[in-house]
Amino acid sequence: MASCRSTGAGPSKIGATAPGPPPPAPHVYSLAAPDPGPAEALAAFAARSGLRRVAVLYPRTAEYEQEVRAFARALEALGKVPYEVKIFPRLNHLFQQAETGDLSEYGKLTKQLDSEFLAVLTEWLRKYLKGG
Asked: b/e per residue, 39-71, with b = 16+ CB within 10 A?
């Protein structure tokens, strides 16, 4: 199953230890571990909540690739929520350009989001906020 915690300052985090996702709220949720349970819980939450579209945006690290596959399988199995998957192979988990995604690179990275990531996210929001 999944757990949820919220600090109130940022998005709620779904982890692998609680009985389910949080109650409906206007937040963005992020998955906390490469366990398929949180992805399945979040996909079920999306379907139950009547979400019309889901964007799954991930960096290229191995654990996130496992999560994105689990999330896509869960959404596909539910069959109720159209979704798109986009993996950014040159980006770390903060969507910054990185060679390995390892914490040791942090001191060398620019402190801005990747322009390709921002363009994809902006286009997706424009498309679906207009009802497309």
From this structure: bbbbbbbbbeeeeeebebbbbbbeebeebbbbb
Structure tokens at 99: 């060679």
Q: Are 108 and 100 in contact (CB under 8 A)?
A: no
DSSP code of 105? G
pTM, entire model? 0.56
- Residue 123 sits at φ, ψ, to 5 deg, of -65, -40
Tokens of 80: 């109720």
Residue-wise pLDDT tens digits, 9-23: 444 444 444 455 555
DSSP category for residue 23:
P
